[in-house]
Amino acid sequence: MTLSGCSQFNASDSDQTPVSTNLTWQQQQQKLQQLDHWILTGKLAIFLENERQTANIYWQQQGDNYSIQLTTFIGTRILQVTKNEQGVEIINNDDEVFTGQDANTLIKQLSPGLDLPIAALQQWIKGNPANASYQLNDQQQVSELLGLDESQNMWAVSFQQYQLFSGTVLPKKVDLKRNDIRVKIAINQWQVTN
Prior knowledge:
Blueprint: E1 7-10, H1 25-34, E2 37-48, E3 51-62, E4 65-71, E5 77-84, E6 87-92, E7 97-100, H2 103-110, H3 118-124, E8 132-136, E9 142-148, E10 154-165, E11 168-178, E12 181-192
Antiparallel strand pairs: 1-12, 2-3, 2-12, 3-4, 4-5, 5-6, 6-7, 8-9, 9-10, 10-11, 11-12
């Protein structure tokens, strides 16, 4: 896939220094709210009560629409979730197609016990605490937030590390917890598209 007007940023895992800009939190949040065309790649780990699943994640966001692909480390599809104007489509590793209007509901039907706050995560993954209470770190970035997903479940989200991309500070490590579900996301690369 080729993207015109595409920028890339690769972050080093050894870069643990805090990332700061001269922007106030209000200025940073405004930039995050305007950022609605992006791609991230990384690794995802989901911890359920007695189970742990890991996958590569590729997430392309274009306004309100998105495509999220989870693959094994050798590239085999585990799950593909696509949202557009017609609704949500999920394709599993057996090439079965499921459609509906809400990704979270479909995922819970396919995998009882698995609950991912995809609608809220579209903002949270950027470090934007939309509809959530939050705390800022010394660099004026969100360090923790408490927010409700579309099913009114409370999630605690912590941001362990950020990276600087074209003047915008974006998360590199995100940890989400709710009851007996924990999701860890390590982002290798952000791309901002036009």
